[in-house]
Amino acid sequence: MRPVEIACDESGSEGENLLGGETDVFAHAGVRLTPEEAAACVREIRARIGSPAEEYKANHLLRAKHRAVLEWLLAPDGPLAGRGHVHLTDKTFFAVRAAVDLLAEDGTEAMARTLHRTGPAAFGAARWEFALTAFTSVLRLKPRRGVTTSPPEFFALVDELAAVPGEAGEIVGRFRGGGERVAAYRTRLASDPGLVPVLDPLVPAVIHTVRHWSTGDTPVAVIHDEQLALTAERVLQLKATLGPRLADVRFVDSRSDARVQIADFLAGVARRIASDQLNGRGDPGLITLLKSFADADSVWDGPVG
Questions:
Q1: I want to staple 175 with a disulfide (CB 3.0 to 4.6 A). Which of 8, 94, 103, 181 is the partner?
Q2: How do strand 4-11 and strand 25-31 relate by DSSP bridges?
């Protein structure tokens, strides 16, 4: 069966830097448009915005004066209705979930949600963020500059947090036996260039995107904006994970493919809308519009929107 072509782009990608970076949300968008439909959409956006910019980005659509253009793009009867999809990742929750999955004995999604919700109050927001940052540090072979924590230091911190009364302390107490799993993971990461880092949300988001569009027996051919994190080894891993659902992955410069430009618009505006919601500045109208595009399995603690 002939594959369906899905054009993809992301917004908020900082690799394994889940905390303390420039963004707190990662968004990966896929659109199903023909080149002609996408080009017409770009022309319409250009005409409605009326900016002399040679290349439009999501921030053009997010300006207050262009609110009507953004609403048109995301509207139920707009050009992306039924043709766009976004997988969202709350980076902090992603880190918590990774810690529970890797460190806790019999870790569950419910356990991760409980820890995410109760951790800041139980341990103090700053101390909890430091603990999560320490966790991300010990999993990386090349820690971020200024963020270095050894496994012994991290597990000493685990012991301190586990002594805090309450549900959050009890869950962190389950991390005590995770030292061997951390060591084993670091060994695999050093020896296997195709191993997907557990802290990078990009590959899981691509998997969700392909699964969304590969309905029935229809495979997906991904046309993606150039992305250094999607190495040849990781593309092979994607194909191994997705099997016949993924027919091909091809990289293009977004400026040369209008479909990828539209995916860039959708990812960028979705990330900003979701980030505003996450930080208590949510716009009800835009959140409602985003709901029809957001993946129900986004890495989000609660409903998206």
A1: 103
A2: antiparallel
